[in-house]
Amino acid sequence: MSSIAGGKVKLAGLSAPGRCLLAFCIASGISGCLPSIEGGPERLYTVQEETALARRIASPDNYERYVNASGSEKKQIRDQLIFARMYANDVLFSEYEEKLTRERQDVPFYVQLAQTALTTTGSLVGGAQTKAILHAVVTGLATTKTSYEKDILIEKTIDVLQKQMRAQRKAIRARLISNLDLPVSSYPLYFALTDLEAYYRAGTITGALNGVSTSVTVQLMEAEREEAEAVKNLRLDSAEDVPQAEQPLRDIAKNAQTKAEEISPSFARVIQKNLCVDQDGNFGGANSQTRNAIKMFQNARGFPATGQIANSRQRNLLNTRPAKSCEDLGLGHKNAFERYRYPSTTRIQALHRILLAGLIKQKQLKAQKQPPEDFDISKFTDDFREQTAFNSLTREAISTLNVLYLNDDSNEITDKRLELDIAN
After folding, report:
1. pTM for this one?
2. Per-residue pLDDT tens for 124-144?
3. pLDDT at 277 over 90
4. 6 in any annotated domain
5. Which of 339, 371, 393 is a domain's end point?
6. 20 and 149 share one domain
7. Which one of 339, 360, 394 terminates a domain?
């Protein structure tokens, strides 16, 4: 039994283990009163109930309905399936993010809680041996906490990765929502499912790490480019003052630009042919024909458009052998963006549907910038959507839409702006 005498607590009749348990229970009871440990208010519906509802909406029956539907009904079913899967993904990501946050909070907190309980117990129990045991346990827990806090995930990494996840998800979410304006012919369900899979991956540790790695790589390459430009623009005050320094500086300026790439002239010619530019084995400066073509390729494949090839994945994509120029492929491509954005007949058909959607949209909206007077949209029939190569009609449609959307009368596509503007 316990009693109070002279302002002190006496624990009579309790064994040393009993006193340990009592102290730990008191500390645990206090922790249960802290809202910050609970994570947040109680949900109206559980995560399981929310996702079950989304699964009912995105059931196999509704996918079958989509396949068999047509017109506005098909678009309505597509949009319902997209929204249901997006919401389920949001709910599950919210739960996952909460677990990541609590992982940082819980382990150090409960280790500290156990330390406090055992230290308190040490002051209540008697006996040198018991105190020595408790001191050893407390020391072990302190070591556990220190080791955990030194882990790479705890050095602010989780916080950085969570921010990266949210940023990537917002970007893909915006793309999904903007694409809902497109007709099913331009944005069919299987395109949406691909974007939904990217939306999921953006909320994973792997996706966040890849995003951070890409961002850091871009910064590194930009720093190397600036360094190369600075060295290239360096001028000696007087050649007579330091005559032996001139040649090393020229060597630095020459090598700094290609340091990250380390591409031989023969390999450079292979890449240049695949990029549909002149094959001289020299990539040139920042705004050279080859550098601009590399940027088009990177833009088309979703890489940061730096103009430098600094990772093995890009090298492998550009190392198609035997090398083939745009003319060799016979699909009507005119530049690197078109080749790598629309590399197959299927992707070219998808482009034709996007172009047709843009033309119809402009006609329906009665845009301020009207097509040329001799422009006849009737020539772009359903057959146009099924054509499998760039042709004169493709170029006419691109030229018209470039004028309407980009104030550019070019008949080539050099980046994603036209697609994005049509989607918006």
Report:
1. 0.43
2. 445 565 555 555 555 555 555
3. yes
4. no
5. 339
6. yes
7. 339
pLDDT of the residue at 351 = 92
pLDDT, tens digit, for every residue of 53-110?
Answer: 888 888 888 888 998 998 889 999 999 999 999 998 998 988 888 887 776 555 554 5
pLDDT of residue 2 exceeding 80: no
In this structure, the answer to whether residues 131 and 254 fall within a common structural domain is no
User: Tens of pLDDT along 99-124?
Assistant: 877 765 555 545 554 555 445 445 44
Reduce the secondary structure of the chain to three states and give it as a string: CEEEECCEEEECCCCHHHHHHHHHHHHHHHHCCCHHHHCCCCCCCCHHHHHHHHHHHCCHHHHHHHHHCCHHHHHHHHHHHHHHHHHHHHHHHHHHHHHHHHHHHHHHHHHHHHHHHHHHHHHHCCCHHHHHHHHHHHHHHHHHHHHHHCCHHHCCHHHHHHHHHHHHHHHHHHHHHHHCCCCCCCCCHHHHHHHHHHHHHCCCHHHHHHHHHHHHHHHHHHHHHHHHHHHHCCCCCCCCCCCCCHHHHHHHHHHHHHCCCCCCHHHHHHHHHHCCCCCCCCCCCCCCHHHHHHHHHHHHHCCCCCCCCCCHHHHHHHCCCCCCCHHHHCCCCCCHHHHHHCCCHHHHHHHHHHHHHHHHHHHHHCCCCCCCCCCCHHHCCHHHHHCCCCCHHHHHHHHHHHHHHHCCCCCCCCCCHHHHHHHC
Name the residue range of residue 64's domain.
14-203
